[in-house]
Amino acid sequence: MKSKRFDAIIVGEINIDLVLWRVPMPEYEKEQLAEEMRFTMGSSSAITAHNLAALGARVAFVGKAGDDIFGHYMTEQLRAAGVDTSHIIMDPTLKTGATIVLANPPRKALLTYLGASATSSWRISIGISSLQGIISISAAFFSRPASGGRSGSSSAVPGSWA
Asked: How many CB atoms lie under 10 A from the CB of residue 147?
């Protein structure tokens, strides 16, 4: 059986975004109303994979999500764009991450729950021989600051190993 060939393999987090537009900054014990709301694909790595595939690249995504409605939404969006999602682990014991975006252009505030992406007990099991292009590792879950803020890195490595 011939192995699949990819132009890019993206390793990263999977989370949805709930974007609230034109909303006052929250205050404890006080409800604030947003003018608009959108539920959409989140995670810069997942969005990159989606957009590369939409442009015609052969893309595989490697990551971990909860076996829940958010995880299924994300994998369906990636698959619909043509991304190979066979390397996404759907874990029924974990929740998929989510980010609430308070969008007040030109500024925004982000509240993120990393969910399944925060676990480091999974292994990447895709062969480098499948790669013809680049591998991109976008990982907020590789390092966690003590302050509770988000820390991470992203890197792309040219792939000429095939």
From this structure: 7
Residue 53 lies in a domain: yes
Full strand arrangement of the beta sheet holding 131-139: 84-91, 59-66, 6-12, 131-139, 153-158
Instruction: Kindly report the CATH number assigned to the domain that includes residue 34.
Output: 3.40.1190.20
Residue with tokens 């029924």: 92
Domain contains 1: no
* Strand order, beta sheet including 36-41: 36-41, 15-21, 96-104, 107-115
Q: pTM for the full model?
A: 0.77
Q: Which residue has tokens 């399944």?
A: 116
Amino acid at 158: P
Residue 98, burial from CB neighbour count under 10 angstroms (0-12, 13-18, 19+): middle
The residue assigned the tokens 């698959």 is 79
Which pLDDT tens digit goes with each residue over 112-154?
A: 999 998 875 555 555 545 555 556 566 554 544 444 444 444 4
The number of distinct structural domains making up the chain is: 1
Map residue 108 onto helix, strand or coil: strand
Task: Tell me the pLDDT of the chain averaged across its residues.
Answer: 81
